[in-house]
Every structure is written in C-alpha cells, then in structure tokens.
C-alpha cells in the first residue's frame, strides 16, 4: 500500500494495487473521523459575486476554486477539510484534465488531497459555463470544539 497520511484526523489512502492518483491532485480513499462536523458545498461555478461568468475554461476553473474557498470559509473550514470533490466539465478532453490536475495539486499543496470524481457533462446551469465543482468537507470533533 502506498503511504497514507493524516491531516486533522482525516486519513487519505492510495492502495498500491491502484494507480497513484496524487499527480492528478486527488486520493482514492479518504476516511473521515468519528463525530465529525460535515459541510456540504453546492456546485461552485466560474462566476463572480455579481453572477458574471469568467471567460475561458482556466479562468472559470480558478474562479470555481476561489468560490469554493469562500463557501468553505463561511462554514469555518478550508480546502484542507475537503474529503470529496465532484468536478463537472463540459467538452472534457486531455488538456482540460491537465489544467484541473495542476489546479488541484496547487490548491492542496502538501496537504492530503480529497477523493474526487470528474464527470464530463454536455451542459451546466448557465450558458457558457464550462466547469463546476462541489465539495464535501469534514472537521474532526476536536477541531470543531476548538473552532
């Protein structure tokens, strides 16, 4: 089994029998602590607070991650508390996968990466919307008590 690591009572596991997902910015398995406070973040798109959609895939992707950080902060959480992501992509291809992988690696840095499912889709909620990311986060009981 590839090394597993802990972050604030959450455990990420990447079994040796499965390919190493870390270069793509995610983990195969994340175990959340007992008595955790769960946070569910709706899909965040590439629009700003006024609803203006960023132009181009990479700009929308960066805005999705920024919006995700804002939503998590509203619940006293951060990216490091995220245990699962769903990434929805219009017109998915290798170039978009590479941009997503790079953005997730950069966003999580040296912290454990969440489990993640990428789903190519024919369309998202808004005309011109190219990517959307939803998240599930958890804060361990000891963290939640300290916060």
Could you characterize the architecture of this molecule?
InterPro entries: RutC-like_sf (IPR035959), YjgF/YER057c/UK114 (IPR006175). This is RidA family protein. This protein is α+β, with helices and mostly antiparallel strands. The protein has a single domain (5-146), classed as RutC-like (60s Ribosomal Protein L30, Chain: A). It is 27% helix and 29% strand. It has 3 helices and 7 strands, in the order E-E-E-E-H-E-H-E-E-H. The chain has helices at 57-74, 94-108, 141-146; strands at 5-7, 10-13, 29-31, 37-44, 82-90, 115-121, 131-139. The strands form 2 sheets. Strands 4-7-5-6 form a 4-stranded mixed beta sheet. Strands 1-2-3 form a 3-stranded antiparallel beta sheet, with no helix packed on it. Helix 1 (57-74) runs parallel beside helix 2 (94-108).
